[in-house]
Amino acid sequence: MIGMKTSQKSEIIATLVLIGSAVLGGFSAYASKIALKELTPTTILFLRISFMVVSLLPFVAGRLSQLRHHWKRVVFLGLLWSGNVLGFIVGIEHTTAIASSTIYTVVPLMVLFLQWIFLAIRATKHQSAGVLIGFLGALLVIFIPQADLRFGSTEGNLIMFAAITSYASYLVVSKSLSTHVSALLLTAGSALVGWVLSFFLFIVVDGFASIPVIFSATGPTWLSLIYLGVVMGGFMYWLIQWGVKYSSPLTASMMGYVLLLVASTVGVVLLGEQFTLQIILGCILIVIGVFVASVLPLFRRNV
Fold this sequence. Notes:
By secondary structure, the protein is mainly alpha-helical. It is 78% helix and 0% strand.
């Protein structure tokens, strides 16, 4: 890195940090599948975010007052984050690790679209073509025939698509907020908003009668919850926030390809999942779409 500008070094470090977060995220489906054997999605959501809040509070307790100046945007960011986490835990119950991670690779294309809508950043011809190609690939994955239960139901895949919409919006919104609020505070703020929402859902959907079920859960379920809450929730999302601050929402969103590689390996090795021709074609189209939209313009710019 000798001779590089400070901004370039920060961007390279941020990219490496984002890759690390994607590796951690690749095990989310596996951990969720374990927890879903004994607990409902809303209970898992509440416990996961509770672990996340507990792990973050010691580091931000004295600085939470800084969020008051931006509380409306922090609440909005927290709702977007919650939509992603809730959509994932509900959707993964009806689909597979491979299908869910493949659908998440549409996030870069979604980020380009949202930047155009909300930030007036117009897409180039390459980006427009990439969005179209990637969207076609996503449709192949989302609309897996109902009879092919190896890749879940169309309902589950559509819920995952709604989750990635929330996640892409979260990345775009967090970029503007990151200039005013630290990455750790943004992560904690999102978690606190998510905890309030998850507690409400837990009371309405499961109720206090489900508490005995929680305490009867086995060790693997509790380890999965701790992983989802502390490692993925507290640590991974802090890495993502930090990476977005020093790189870009698009760079962060493209880590979905690392996640796809890890999650697919986990799905095949640990969950006994298999690839089909339809999902392979979907993956190829998504990869081509992101390459055309995001990578090809960089090559042309440097020629």
